[in-house]
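notes to self, project folder thing:

trying the whole complex as one job this time. last attempt i did each chain seperately and stitching them together was a nightmare. four parts in total, labels are on each line so i dont mix them up again. if this works i'll redo the older ones the same way
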Amino acid sequence: MRTTRRQFLALSGAVSAAVALRLDGVPAFAQTGPIKIGVLAAKAGVLAPVGESGLRGVTWATDRINAAGGILGRKVELVVEEESSPKDTVERFRKLVLSDKVDVVSGGISTGVGLALGPVAEEMKAMWLAWDATTQKGVEETIPKPRYAFRSTDNECEAVMASILTAKNWKGKFRTVAGINPDYSYGRDNWAAFLAIMKKYGIEIQVVSELWPKLGATDFTAHVAALQQAKPDLIFSCFWAGDTPIFMKQAHAAGLTTGTRFVLTTGGGVHESLKKAFTPEGALLGYNSMYFEHPRASALMKEFVRWHQEKFKEWPNYESDHGYFTIAAYKAAVERAAKAAGGKWPTPDAVIPALEGVEVESLSGPRRFREDHIMEATFFQGYTTHKNRYDFATIDPVETMGTKQIQKPTGLGLYDWINSWKV
Amino acid sequence: MLGGTFHAAVLFLVAAGLQLVFGVQRILNLACGSFYALGAYLGVSAVTWALGAGLPAPLFVVVLIAAGLALAAIGPPVERILRTIYDRDESFQLLLTFALVLMFEDVIRFVWGTAPHQLGSVYLVYGQLRIGGSTVPVYNLVVIAAGGSIALGMGWLLTRTRFGRIVRATAENREMSEALGVDMTRVYRRVFTLGVALGTVGGALVIPATAATSEMGIELIVEAFAVVVIGGLGSMRGAAAGALIVGLLKAGAIAVWPEVEMLAVYVVVIAVLVLRPAGLFARAAA
Amino acid sequence: MARTAGGLAALAVLAAPWVAPPYHLTLLLPAFAYGIVLLGLNLLFGTTGLLSFGHALFVALGAYTAAALTTGLGVLHLEAILAAAAGAAALVAVPLGLLCVRYVKIYFGMLTLAFGMLFYSFLYKFYTLTGGDEGIRVLRPLLLGRAFGDLGKVEFLIGPFYYYALALLAVATLVMWRVVRSPFGLCLRAIRENPDKAAAVGVSVRRYRFYAFVIAAVFGAVGGALLAVPTGLADPLLAYWTHSGNLVFMLLLGGFDHFLGPLVGALVFILLQDTVMSLTAYWRFVFGAILAVVVIFFPRGLLGLLDPRAGRSA
Amino acid sequence: MSLLQARDVRMFYGTFCALDGVSLSIEAGQFVSIIGPNGAGKTTLVNVLTGLLAPTSGSVRFKGVDVAGLGPGRLARLGMARSFQLVSVFPALTVGETLAVPIVSRRRHGARLFAALAGDRATWDEVAETAALFGLADKLARPARTLPQGDKKLLDVASAFALRPEVILMDEPTSGVSTSDKHAIMETLVGAAARMGIQAIIQVEHDMDIVFGYSDRIVALHQGRVLADATPDAVRADERLIDTVVGRSYSSGAGRPW
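result (full assembly):
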């Protein structure tokens, strides 16, 4: 039964040849019928709400495109699969590409999945437009020069922006600092970025407590107690999931929200759950790359927000825009490539360069893919207020910064870049 | 310190349910975490509805407990399913409860969706207290008190009532009490339902202080499991002690060395299993 | 009858790469890997009567060994990786086994679960070492020293790697067949049936349980290393307790008191998951229901359905 | 030197004295029956003799080795086997497999991971041989759980015999077996013991027919003390002894002429 080496090699050689043949045999890119777009959206666990939000953006974009006659006259058809553990998600990705023969895959949020899918997309020569999970590791280590993988904005953008605002507006108003961040790469990278930037701005801070609750934890009473002992002037947190309201609620109940400054880089992801009852005014709150109530929101944005509110009785968050952008960008790129090809349908290899540098009007405003396949967008943060018509806090005034300002440029390490700032 | 106790109180309720069922039915019920989650979600829905219907806020606790108890109604049917394999190897019973965990997780997603559910403001209805320089919401104390009194109540139920004697007898020796004409079917149904109730009430009680998320159950199982191992399988006192140990251990770790929060718990669990496999309170009655 | 069926099945998997669509071939790879894992797990459960609820620990261990060797040390020879995985598993299984086999039934299950979760939190917490939640990449390995550089990843996977995995599974199956049919295997079954009696007739119960534990661990890690190649990543979720639960699920699905149960279980589970996941977002519910039905009505799994022989009272 | 020797063994459970200075030595070639009323300490004695319980004071030596806490495995390898009062088999294993287990472990083949058992002629020959001795030859392929009670008992004892011990202790070898089968079983046992070169049999037995029928030495226990250690005839002659250790019921009830 055990195949000897020679047999094995001969056999495998023959087989691989046969397989290769067949793979070339199938048209990798059908030119008629609907365009198939694969979607990977988390549906269970901590990521589920974010996954749904992204899926809503994608669906809305697709419906609009189809209503307007599709892409170059071809309707868009979505094949949705679940993002779960890296292993299972890689298998789903393969299914989309090999079995459903989709033209492009949109989605992916979790850092582990992000790290796994990058190489797989390259190996399978399958276009992948991620929504999120652009970790330092994911970008630097896995695929230095990606061709098929297009990533979202850096994970640290929100921290960088929040840190700059903190340094500018609160300099001298705080000295002792505590960090409570989810215990995984996202949390650690953001906290590290914050510390680096404080240092860069020459702000003397003393870290009195560093807490790392598990992502998705539902009880922070012990952490809050630890914070009470530490008595920091400022608490930095990049919570983005259900843990945000729980932490704020328990922190408020313990009286931490009076006299302590809060920096919530990403809380806007679950903004509706940040009830006025326990969310103080004047805290720095980040909404990432989309703020549902931006005073100067585009007509497109207003329309989406209305639709979202009517359909789901919820106000949308940034992930919807990540989703929307991937579809809109793909459409633009295909049309761009087609124009270059004299109107005939472009090959995937022609779409990729068209995606590089493509700029489209996304929900939150103009967005583009950089030549190194990293997304560029505008970030929205601001100081919480209760003066609104909701039962949750919103921000006013709204600060905006572009990724040109808060995202490390191509080829530069995050910290080298931060250190190169002139301040 | 109080933080740990608060967590311990909730842990105890779930662990107690686990203990009771194991003590009598010899089933290690992984689904206890799911009951906890269900209780939390229903608690949110019930209170939100009640407040909407004009219930004076301070009374929300009553609604929570009512919701938890009402949910215990799923006890009998679930017990009916488990009954089909009482005569089988423990491994199969463990697996069946694992199946329940998978199913309940999706039931929750189906009914309540994936977004976290929470009660906005009732948490602070009872105000706050200043204890030893730190502010503590009175509701935390309410939960701790509830946990404590339920513990005492269980103690009384098990030692002073006829039902309790039957339960203890069954836990000691099933054949014997069967021979004495005890209706096992009934005892099992009641015990299991009581176990469910402890979990659901626990989930309902904790919810004002936190938010209901679909994975809260799976997260808690492992901790509750740690509690019963440390305390000793089937022992009510063990559940109480174990819950306190785990709660305070985590709180302590968070205060001193956050990195090892969960690690510390597992290490203690293994230490107990190795040094004292029967648990710290092995001898105590179920 | 059964022979011909087996023969046909063997023929089918051998011929698959020429006929089956690529995606389904990639699906078979985890099935092969899990097959190896479950062969080991079943020596523990089906043969010795010990239910481990933390066996995913060794699967993860194998995967991380592959990651450490390929990404960390640049060792790409799959043979070396598998050997290392086996070694690492044995290394870890010896102390763990010495502790665990002192207990049986529910206590064994709990202790193994605890160790599994301990390893999980280790992988998760000590990110400088393990990459934390992101895990560590597993690079494309060399098979018998050949890189097959002319092939894309998919061609590589469904071509050479497919047969490599298949051959490995065959070897594992043969090895386990010998083990189960050996005097040792007989003693394990005796221990499962009646430990006291076994001891009374001179079987050193704990020692043999310990051997079984270590063997199972080695199979688990080898399968884990193989599993990590198609995924290209080793991540902590591999060690989470629900993954251990799924392993037992597969075992039960196939039939734990049948030698080939593990292989059938792995295959059916993978195909089932693939179909159900595409059909509904609530596939966990469906799977829970299936597991419940199997446990209640078909405790001897699919193969139990096929053969009329009354199985041991589960 | 005698095979098995108990010296002044005392066994206390808390304050309760189960064995109170028991001394006895078993020589090769003896069939010894231990009798006595319930609570006389019979089973305790067997447990002490087989090293399952360590005596509070005193010692038990088998071939000069102290057996206390030796454990069944080591003891079996040393040459002492034991069967329990309640029938104990491997339900799912066939008769053949069941008998193979002790043979394999006696030959230290247990840890042979890859040797094919099926091909191991020697083992299977001995299995067949043993099975024949116990009248199980035609049932080799049957799972133990499907055997009638009598055969289960035989299989149980047979697997102990298959260890080829020098001494075997049997706790009520005929308990739970219909009176009609009892003698048949005993005949088989004694016959097999002779054939398999077992040097001494020690049994605990209530049934006086069996006791008087087969033993060549009787140890009568009462309240943890050796009341008598004599030949069947001597014991039979002693009415008072019979009454105390067996109870009037026997001597009066079963009208057996002596």
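what i see at first glance: Residues 19-30 of chain A have pLDDT under 50 and may be disordered.
need to look closer tmrw
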